[in-house]
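Page 42, continued from yesterday. The earlier attempt failed because a stray header line got pasted into the input along with the sequence. Redoing it now with the clean sequence only.
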Amino acid sequence: MLHLLYVLAFTILAFLAIANLIRNMLTLGMESQRSYAPAGWSAGNGTTSRPRPVPHPEFLDDAGNVINEPLLVMRSMSVEDAREHLDALYDSSPGNSNSGDSREES
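This time it went through. Structure tokens are written below.
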């Protein structure tokens, strides 16, 4: 008898959980399609044009104009060039007491 009560209780909980999941998904779907008016814009001001989307600040230059060029340009380099640059940085670091000649190559 106790097993039947457990099965019934967990069945009811499962139905409630699935109903809550479906309700939340429907609410989220309706909220994602809702359009919000920008601050200072009201429906009674007579403007029917849609507000222009504002780009992310990283896509703007100092004057506020949109940048139409790539933001990241990578130059390909060989492993040897990268190793030489890293060795030069290591040798010029202030905490490096060994000279580059005394270090053993691996």
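Notes: Residues 5 and 22 are 26 Å apart (CA to CA).
Reminder to self: strip header lines before submitting.
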